Amino acid sequence: MNKLFAFWGFLIAMSGCSAHSHKEPAHQRSLPLLEVRPVDAPKRPVFTEAPTSTFEVATFLETSSPTQLLKAAATTCRDARDERGFFGLYRTDAGPKGEIALTFDDGPHPTATASVLKLLAQHGRKATFFLVGRNISRDTYPLVQQMRADGHALGSHSYSHNVHMTNVATPDATIEDIVAQHEVTAILIDIALLAKSPEDFDQRFTRVFDSAPATWLSGRTIREHWKTYQSRHTSELSLAGYAPGDRPYRVIYSRPPGGGPYVEHDGAAGIAIYDKALARLGMVNVMWHSASGDTVPEKRGDFGFLTDNLAKGAKQGGVVLIHDYMRPDALEHSLEQMARDGVRTVPLASAVAAKYGCDESALRTLLRGPS
Ligand SMILES: [Zn+2]
Fold first, then answer.
1. Which H or E run includes 181?
2. Distance from Cα 107 to the centre of ligand 1, integer Å
3. Which of 39, 45, 120, 337 matches a 20 to 30 Å C-alpha distance to 191?
């Protein structure tokens, strides 16, 4: 039992998110840093308390690889929401060995994210970037555009990166907060994709959020005003010629900062709150099977530690968690090793196809709900 807890403690330490390891953009330096999960926080294996579903994934995967499944994916999804009320990908899901979905958290950052994009392009790998809304700015919006141009997928990692998202207010207000955090990030992703210049980004930001450029909105402000922001954004899209319900990018993947209640404290109550928010969002919650370990404070500079973790994760298969600020030479080495080992990278859509038996467009339709 002690071994089990030690193992979970290690995983939890590996999962924390931090923005302390890189410089903030000039106009943001005077603002507070992101909240960071304390490394000595209570640790317990909450997954054992909240087991995921028992879909027919195992049988599904015994006969085909997710890549094959994606090609053959149906245009309607198995509606497995009865299991937990929302869609999700969890570390307990099955996955084929040597086939991974790369995910990068905490960007966009002017230099760290640019470095990741360059390495991925050099190695011909696609990934999903879980973006922090307040990091999307006049300085970083071109990187979001480059992600799409390079064929990467985008997800929401919340606006404020509060690792205690399930404990900000009363349960109802907390659900509203989580919904607001991901919705506002989705709006900022749209603005980033629409912006034609830094000045244009700032003007769009001001029109939607009624705030000066580069303002970091407080969690409370977002919770109280996100519907107004959404309404203004819809009007902007309409003026730009978008049909009702259409937008530059529909975010369907979200990841709670630090893994939220699914990794650590708050237990069953926190999970229930986050589950309800996800059901309202209509987003797929994406956890991970392995991590580079780049958030472990005393290990993030350790080349061997990082590359060993990624090598093991690649061999194991599934969703791999990395942060944009991971030591670049270690990431480069890992990408080279993946090529030597014949490790395949697949989009998250492959994991969706394996678990829900449908393609991404069918999933979007299902998540959007009856119109
Ligand atoms: Zn994070």
1. helix 171-194
2. 9
3. 120
Q: Backbone phi, then psi, for 295, in 5-degree steps? A: -100, -5
Q: Which fold has domain 81-194+249-368?
A: TIM Barrel (3.20.20)
In the chain the first and final C-alpha atoms are separated, in Å, by 49
Can you tell me the distance from the alpha carbon of 249 to that of 236, in angstroms, rounded to the nearest whole number? 14
**Integer Cα distance of 207 and 128 in angstroms:** 29
Torsion angle of alpha carbons 231, 232, 233, 235, nearest 10°?
90
User: Phi and psi for 118 in degrees, rounded to 5?
Assistant: -65, -45
Q: What is the pTM of this model?
A: 0.81
Q: E strands within 106-249?
A: 127-131, 153-156
DSSP assignment letter at 300: T
Closest listed residue to residue 69, CA positions, set 359, 301, 271:
359
Collapsing DSSP states into helix, strand and coil, what is residue 292? coil
CA of 263 to the centre of ligand 1 (A): 13
Q: Compute and round to an integer the Cα radius of gyration of the chain.
A: 19
Burial (CB count within 10 angstroms: exposed 0-12, middle 13-18, buried 19+), residue 343: buried
- The answer to whether the CB of 290 falls within 8 A of the CB of 256 is no
What is the DSSP code (8-state) at residue 145? H
Q: Where are the beta strands (DSSP E) in 98-231?
A: 99-105, 127-131, 153-156
17 C-alpha vs ligand 1 centroid, how far in Å?
A: 4
Q: In a 3-state reduction of DSSP, which class is residue 222?
A: helix
User: Separation of 201 CA from ligand 1 center, angstroms?
Assistant: 24
Q: Could you read off the pLDDT of 125-143 as tens digits, one per residue?
A: 999 999 999 999 999 999 9
Is pLDDT at 302 greater than 70 in this prediction? Answer: yes
